[in-house]
Amino acid sequence: MLQIENLNKTFELGGGTFKRALVDLDFVAQEGDFVTIVGSNGAGKSTLLNMVAGVYAADSGTIAIDGTDITSWPEHKRAKFVGRVFQDPMMGTAGSMTIEENLAMAYKRGQRRGLKLGVARNRVKFKALLAELDLGLEKRLKDQVRLLSGGQRQALTLMMATLKTPQLLLLDEHTAALDPKTARRIIDLTQSIVDNHGLTVLMVTHNLQQALEVGNRTIMMHDGGIVLDLQGRKREDTSVDSLLEAFSRVKKERFLDDRALLA
Ligand SMILES: Nc1ncnc2c1ncn2[C@@H]1O[C@H](COP(=O)(O)OP(=O)(O)OP(=O)(O)O)[C@@H](O)[C@H]1O
Ligand SMILES: [Mg+2]
Predict the structure, then answer these.
(1) pLDDT tens digits, 24-42
(2) What is the dotted CATH code of the domain comprising 2-13+28-93+149-262?
């Protein structure tokens, strides 16, 4: 479904210094894969998601969806099939617009034209969807989004990102800023939306327990590359402790031997 080959991205940090954020990265996700991504700060996780979403252009390498090379496609063109939720609850929604306007905009994939009509036509549907969140938002359709809490705003962003079923859903630590109970609720909601639509998902998380529990596959990134790819039996047999150990080992060895991880 998603094919990434030999992807490279280097950022200029100023003062003549450079950071190779992605280094010869290869990655293939199958249709319906729900991949959790772990790795230390600065490993390149967000850069990978940003490259797939088209926020940054690739220095070299290719990104393809179902065999179509999208490497040079601009972000807005990819937004037609990529949904995303960021770590920061302030992003992904327009604070000065109401809940129903935000939903209508998502429904029109970002187009502001004809928003009023979009709201009027879909109000009943929006209400029903929001009621499913069980956060009371269905009674606040005309509230500006800036009045919502971080958790409420993330739930809304997730709903917006999946309103027009995307082929690929990108989640970058989307529960990191939330209290444990709300984070749990958002994860459950994520899982049910993904199950209902059979979405392909890349989800970055620092919660190793969650990384192993949610989805069907876990990759670990380090220094701009993928150093571990766990699925099936291998993943089932991996504990949080052994994943933690892999974190410290990868710092010394760069590439991990999967068999050693489970030994
Ligand atoms: N826009 C940018 N300009 C310059 N450097 C950047 C930019 N984006 C990322 N980097 C650098 O690239 C490297 C990878 O960053 P990235 O945000 O992908 O890490 P991450 O794995 O998401 O880390 P974290 O867990 O802290 O979110 C870091 O060294 C970072 O400073
Ligand atoms: Mg990040």
Answers:
(1) 999 999 999 999 999 999 9
(2) 3.40.50.300
**Ligand 1 pocket, 228 CB below 6 A?**
no
Query: Which residue ranges make up each domain of the chain?
Result: 2-13+28-93+149-262, 97-143
CA of 87 to the centre of ligand 2 (A): 8
Q: Burial of 181 by CB count in 10 Å (0-12 exposed, 13-18 middle, 19+ buried)?
A: exposed
**Alpha-carbon gap, residue 193 to 198, rounded angstroms:** 8
Among 42, 32, 62, 48, residue whose Cα is nearest residue 172: 48
* Winning range, highest mean pLDDT, from 82-86, 134-138, 210-214: 210-214
C-alpha–C-alpha distance, residues 60 and 57, integer Å = 9
Q: How many CB atoms lie within 10 A of CB 188?
A: 11
Q: Which pair of structure tokens corresponds to residue 86?
A: 């960021």
Q: Which residues of 225-257 are buried (b: 16+ CB within 10 A; e: fewer)?
A: bbbbbbeeebbeebeeebbeebbebbeeeeebe
**147 Cα: distance to centroid of ligand 1 (angstroms):** 30
